[in-house]
Structure formats: structure tokens, C-alpha cells
């Protein structure tokens, strides 16, 4: 997989959560999200417990609340969708602050907000405690199709390269006095996008030829063999196991 690739969601640390093998954390987060989604929406107390469990994980990982809350802003579009549900959904209506809202829409909005927020929070904690390179190694260890792992790896590696190319093209346009102010400038932007596509395609061809010349035959060599002990698996699965108990109680009570 090559050298590590830092990302903005990652927070450097040496906590017990950081030291867990990546495939154990990926499995734990996936299992936790599945349990949360399976919880009945009427069991509101269960979602509060889930939030408490994630807070404990954040405390163990030494991830500050501000760091987590700032990155939760990514779910704003889902929040907007949830806010609209009570107004557009059909069925029985109820009055809330003088507004006629759908009861089913209110339950739907709560369902989206609660489960979506918990899922995003769990994903942010995973990204905050696991480097991108480790995530790829974890997916590889979990037997994700090798081609998908390679595609993800190249996307991560060359995403910044393409972004930097876009930045240089923007600086070149501005140095020549160009500033997009309306529809009449869309032609220039379209030509820039086309040039960027051609440059990216040509760069990809050069990279592929370089890989083939070095013996690439369709699969990447495994440099780091990531393993996990039984104790590490047990530690990682505490979160989904506790969530599963809460989910079962939510269906029973």
C-alpha cells in the first residue's frame, strides 16, 4: 500500500482505540451501525444509551467533543431532509407550536436524525482513530475484493494530486486576469475542466506503464500483514455487543 496518507478526519494519538488493528475497528463500527438501524424508533432511551457508548469510545480514544461535533456537520443535508418530513408526510396530523405536522412524519424525522447521527458519529470516530492506509489494509484483511481495494487506494493517493492540479490551473487563470463572474465565463471553466480530465487521464496512463514495467500483474503485493489477537477482537467488539443488548431490550420493553 505504500506510505501512509494523512487525512483531515484523522487525529494523531496513542490511545487503546488507535492501537487496535483496523479490521477489528471496521467490523465493530459496521456491527454497531447495523444494531442501531435495527432498533425500534419508539425506544428513544436506547438511542441515548448508544450516544453514551460512543461518548465512552471518544473518551477512550481521546477525541475531543469539539473535534467530533465539527465533523458531524457533514450530515446537514440529512438534517434538512428530516426537518421537511413532518410537513410533507401524509397520515394523522398533530399541532406543534401552531403548525400542523404529520405524526408519521415526526417519527420518520426522529428515526433519520437519531440513526443517521449515530452512524455518522461512529464513522467519524473510526476515521479519527485510523489512518487511510490502515483502513485499506483492514478492508484487505476482511477479504474485500482486491480490485475495489486498489481502486480506493489510487483514489486516495491521486485525489490530492488532481486537487493540486486544479489549484495551479486556477492560479494560472487568475494571474492572467480571469475571474468567473457569470454565465459567459462558463466556457473557460468548461475548457479548464476538459484540460484537467486529459491531464489526469495521461497521468494515469503513465502511472500504469510505470507499474507494469515494475512487474504489476493485476494485484498489489501485501507489504504489511495485519493480524489481531483474541484480546484485541474482544476489546473491539465490546461496543457492538453492548449495543446489541440495548437493542434487544428496546424490542422487549
Automatic annotation (TrEMBL):
The keyword Membrane applies. It comes from the Bacteria. Pfam families: CbiQ. CDD domains: EcfT. Its main location: membrane. It is a multi-pass membrane protein. InterPro entries: ABC/ECF_trnsptr_transmembrane, ECF_CbiQ, ECF_transporter_component. It is found in: Cell membrane. The chain crosses the membrane at residues 43-60, 72-89, 109-130, 233-252. Coiled coil: none annotated. Keywords: Cell membrane, Membrane, Transmembrane, Transmembrane helix. This is Cobalt ECF transporter T component CbiQ. It comes from Streptomyces thermocarboxydovorans.
